[in-house]
Specification:
single chain; 198 residues; mainly beta; 8-stranded antiparallel beta barrel; two-stranded antiparallel ribbon; 2 helices
Length: 198
């Protein structure tokens, strides 16, 4: 049976109605040059830190009269071999532990938003659930975000603690095992997204 010519029109109106109900939808893309992410850890010798040099992502939200009403989508991709400590030996051990030859990208995908609360001018606190994939292992994670909402820019920041063993990663070692790293990592990030329409 052929679909009525009115079908696409009705479907478009339906989608528009949903958009109006949830607020005006906008799409953003991550600006790598204005974003930062750091991974900090410990060892039996000294603390250490890695910086992410190459990441990308997309974000979609709804707003109404300049007020954020919903975070509809958030996806991040991190090039695993862009993690850099500034020390060649440590970087090689990190890439080996992450098996970057096989798993080249670390990904995060938003699954749901538990709460969205205004904090101060143009700033909101979000409790989220998402899926984080590292070295081919995917886990569900709960990460709180701070979102600074402007007309053409979104700044998403926060912190998250995790254990390497959760992702079946063996903590890197050096000097024939005399230097060993701790299992826990502390991740901090401040990412900037710009309006895709610009």
């Amino acid at each position: 049976m052929k679909k009525s010519i009115l079908y696409p029109i009705c479907w478009s109106l339906f989608l528009l109605a949903i958009g109006l109900q949830n607020g005006f939808a906008q799409n953003y893309v991550l600006k790598n040059a204005e974003s930062s992410m750091r991974v900090a850890g410990t060892s039996n010798l000294h603390d250490w830190e890695l910086e992410v040099k190459d990441m990308s992502g997309t974000l979609a939200l709804s707003e109404e009269d300049g007020v954020l009403t919903a975070l509809n989508k958030l996806e991040l991709q991190i090039v695993a071999e862009s993690l850099s400590s500034g020390k060649n030996g440590m970087d090689k051990n990190t890439y080996k532990a992450l098996n970057t030859k096989k798993h080249k990208v670390i990904t995060y995908r938003l699954k749901s938003v538990g709460s969205l609360e205004p904090d101060r001018a143009n700033t909101y606190l979000l409790k989220t659930t998402g899926s984080l994939t590292i070295s081919g292992v995917t886990q569900t994670v709960s990460i709180p975000f701070e979102v600074r909402f402007l007309a053409d820019e979104i700044v998403l920041s926060g912190a998250y603690k995790m254990q390497m063993s959760t992702y079946k990663i063996e903590p890197p070692t050096a000097l024939f095992g005399t230097i060993t790293t701790g299992d826990e990592l502390h991740i901090t990030f401040k990412t900037t997204f710009i309006n895709q329409a610009l």
